[in-house]
Amino acid sequence: MALSKIDSEIEQVDQEKYLRQATSYYQALEKPLKYGPEVNSLSDLVAALHREFESNYVNIEMVNHLMLSYKSNPREWRKYAKFDRYTYTRNLVDAGNGKFNLLILCWGEGHGSSVHDHADSHCFMKMLKGDLREKRYEYPNRSARDNGRSHHPDGEIDSRELVEIGETPIAVNDVAYINDNLGLHRVENPSHSDTSVSLHLYCPPFDTCSVFQDNLKKTTAKVTFWSKYGVRTKQNEQ
């Protein structure tokens, strides 16, 4: 194996470790940074994200700024927006050289996700069209002493049932952020007459996550793509 390839693999492992450690303290920006770069198009966003992820020590706050700064333009993202009649879809826009995934999720009327985690990765979710509603839950059986989120006197999250800790509407151009230290979530399109479209960034990328039932039964779910780069994927390529 070439030394350059070995070095590249070591760098990616280091970056993944750094990003996962950052989930222990990162909370999210409410608005773009005052002196951050401008993002005038979806292609600008993708290029800027690639530049940020060139470093092992990704500035996750800058990644947040970039997602906030992009303003939805349907002419730019329409080719990636693929809907399914029965369920929401995950459509890959950019694979981020294996360092991040940028996806467009399409939500039919009333479609929603299960309650799930994010495999110790960062998740940024930006609304492009319509509205979504996020319900957030405590992560079962995790200590919450260190971050002040516990609703229980002993500092432990109740292990018998999911504990809802908030519900937030997400409007066009808003950005929501979550990681496993902040909890689990469920996302749904509350409208029964309009579709919704959202732009998601996951870093590091992951191909499985945990799904939770109300009784806390946990299962592992494989993460798939309904389409890649605007083209419908075959069943064995998802």
Overall description:
With 238 residues, this protein is of the alpha+beta class. The protein has one domain (15-141, 156-227): Jelly Rolls. Helix content is 19%, strand content 28%. The protein has a seven-stranded mixed beta sheet. Strands 3-10-11 form a three-stranded antiparallel beta sheet, with no helix packed on it. It has a three-stranded antiparallel beta sheet with strand order 6-5-8, with no helix packed on it. It is globular, with a radius of gyration of 18 Å. The relative contact order is 0.19. Mean pLDDT is 89; it is low at 1-7 and 145-157. This is Cysteine dioxygenase. There is a cross-link at residues 123-202 (3'-(S-cysteinyl)-tyrosine (Cys-Tyr)). Its cofactor is Fe cation.
Features:
single chain; 238 residues; alpha+beta; Jelly Rolls; 7-stranded mixed beta sheet; 3-stranded antiparallel beta sheet; 4 helices; disordered N terminus; thioether bond; CDO_1; cysteine dioxygenase activity; RmlC-like_jellyroll
Summarize, please:
The protein is globular, with a radius of gyration of 18 Å. It has 238 residues and is an alpha+beta fold. The chain starts with a helix and ends in a 6-residue tail after the last strand.
